[in-house]
Amino acid sequence: MIAQITGNVVSAGPTWIVVELGGLGLRALTTPSTSAGARPGQPVTLQTSLVVREDSLTLYAFADADERDAFELVQSASGIGPKIALATVSVLPPDALRTAISTANLVALMKVPGIGKKGAERLVIELRDKVAGLGSGAEPAAQAAPAASGWQDQVASGLETLGWSARDAAAAVERIAPLAAEDPTLGVGALMRAALRTLAKG
Fold it and tell me: What is residue 26's predicted lDDT score, i.e. its pLDDT?
C-alpha cells in the first residue's frame, strides 16, 4: 500500500496531479482543494490511497490525512466506489462530512453527484458510528498558481469527472466567470472549489 508520496509537482489539473519521484512521473487523482495547492516545480507531500482493480491501479492523493481517511471511510459503505467517494470529499470536506452523517443531513449528502436519497440514508446508517474522529477543521494553506486562459474547459472537465452532467458543469462555469474575471490570480483548483460551492447551493 502506498500511503504517502513526496516529490516535485510536474503538472496539475482540476482533479489530478503529476508528481516526479526519482525520474518517474506519478499521476494521482485528487480533490480540487488538493490540486489547488499544487505549484509546478515545487515539492509536495501527499497522503495517498491506492485502489486496486482487476484491470487497473489508481492512486488517489490528498493534502492531509483527514481527507484521505474520509475518502476511504466513504468507500466502506456498500455501493460506494472510489469515483463517488472522491466526489463526496470534494463537495464535503471532512468536518462537513462528519456533521452531515452524524446529524443525518440527507440534503447535504445528496448534493454529491451519484448519491440519491437511498444512498444518503445508507451512508448515515453505515457510517454514523465511524465518523466521530473525522475532520480537523484545517484547510490546505498553499496557494495555487493563476489559472490559464482555458480555465473554463479545465473546470468543466473536472466537474464532469466528479460526476456532474455537462449541462450542470457549463452552468457552474458560467456562474463563476465573474469571479475569475475579478481576480485573475485565482488558480483552477480555487475556481473548481467555487464551482462546487455553486452546485452545492443549487
Answer: 94
φ/ψ of 56, rounded to 5, equals: -160, 155
Which domains are seen in the chain, by residue range? 4-62 (2.40.50.140), 65-130 (1.10.150.20), 151-201 (1.10.8)
Q: How far apart are CA 97 and CA 100, in angstroms?
A: 5
103 by Cβ neighbours in 10 Å (0-12 / 13-18 / 19+) ranks as exposed
**What kind and span of H or E run contains 200?**
helix 188-201
Model confidence, pTM:
0.75
Confidence category of residue 37, pLDDT binned at 50, 70, 90? confident
> What's residue 140's pLDDT?
42
> What residue has cell string 490528498?
62
Helix (H) or strand (E) holding 126: helix 117-127
